Amino acid sequence: MSRYRSSPRRMDILSPEDVEKQLAKVNAVLAENSIILITVLNPIYNINVDIIYKVCRSSGEVHKIVIFERGLVVHALVEFKNKEAAKEAKDSLHGCNIYSDGCTLKVEFARQEQLNVQRNDEKTWDFTKAESSVRKSNPNNSRKVLLAESPPAKDRWAEEEKYDGIKEFKGRNSEEMFDTRSPVMMVYNLDAERFNCQRLFNLLCLYGNIVRINFIRNKEGCAMVEFEHPDSAEEAAYNLSGAEIFGNILSFDESRKGYIEEIRNPYELPDGEKSFENFIGDKNNRFSTPKQAAKNRKCPPSKTLHFYNVPKMEDDSLMDIFSDMHAPFPTSVTWFDSRSEKTFTGLVEFDTSEDACEALVIANNSEVENEDADDKRPYIMKLCFSKN
């Protein structure tokens, strides 16, 4: 089980009217699939593999479950033995409540063709490789209520806040605990065709200085990332867990290794780049001095990116930087007033947070042409997620 903390963010309860609006926003054009995407609206109680399995098993044989959070929303990907079972689950579960006072399910077909489960724990489970430990229960009806049993004694948010408070206290007062954390993080489910060391650096450098990145040859879509400090690895996992990039949902775990060894002969990734890169002293690491570190914004993904260190240009010219790199195209640009005549900052907005993630992965730390006749050194455009 991952030792990284989960996000203790307190939610705003949706009104019945808002729940109905969300239930109506089902993507009807997605093809039938053996995998469904469940969105839990008003997730006031903890949602784990046990609960999702109980509500899904009456529709057919469940093979895999992956639960993740994006902001304040809980999602579950459930893979069935066949498309028929998935369709039955989609039709029968959509609009139902797990409990009588909340946890309404929005159900649609997923885009993923298969789920990659690395371990069996409360958030992920592969039922084809290990026996389920879930208990038997009988569902009940009404908004159709799927579980008649009592929900967890404490609400999801209070329980997570208590856990994080204990963890934070121990981190401040126990040198032993501090020393045993690893600065090396495992990243799973990367798109092997479109990710490389530099693109992964572009995403993770928002949360701390990176030392080395190494893609694992015998584990497709898996990479090891070494940060300068364990806190940075935990911040990255905390903010990015469950993010969808290039159609894949990323997951993270703490590595057992304390550092990444230098790789003398790295292999070649599908895009031709090397599988290993050393970023010690890289100019695009953003936390090299206290003053530099204080300027960084450690935020989870959003559909708005903050950009800085670019020359003033027309909106279309800035948008073309993204399109020229085959990144998602922004929908709008907002410029901020600048104290400098040479560098400017602002916001670019995208249709979705997934688009913004992909644009950041592709275009962060990219060179922007300098049209100043006296200084032809290129600008290095910096991107990060905005707090909105």
Task: Compose a concise summary of this entry.
The protein is of the alpha+beta class and 388 residues long. The protein is built from ten helices and 18 strands.
Rg over CA atoms: 22 Å
Neighbour order of strands in the largest sheet: 4-5-1-3-2-6
Overall geometry comes to globular
What is the structural class? alpha+beta
What's the total number of strands? 18
Helix content, binned percent: 25-40%
User: Mind summarizing the main beta sheet?
Assistant: 6 strands, antiparallel
Q: Can you write the helix and strand succession as a string?
A: HEHEEHEEEHHEHEEHEEEEHEHEEHEE
Measured by DSSP, the beta-strand proportion falls in: 15-25%
Poorly predicted sequence stretches spanning 5 or more consecutive residues = 7-11, 132-142, 153-179
Distance between the termini: 32 Å
Number of helices: 10
What do these coordinates show?
The protein is an alpha+beta fold and 388 residues long. Helix content is 25%, strand content 24%. It contains ten helices and 18 strands. The strands form four sheets. It has a six-stranded antiparallel sheet with strand order 4-5-1-3-2-6, sandwiched between helices. A five-stranded antiparallel sheet has the order 12-7-9-8-13, covered by helices on one side. Strands 15-16-14-18-17 form a five-stranded antiparallel sheet, with helices on one face. Strand 4 and strand 5 form a beta hairpin. It is globular.
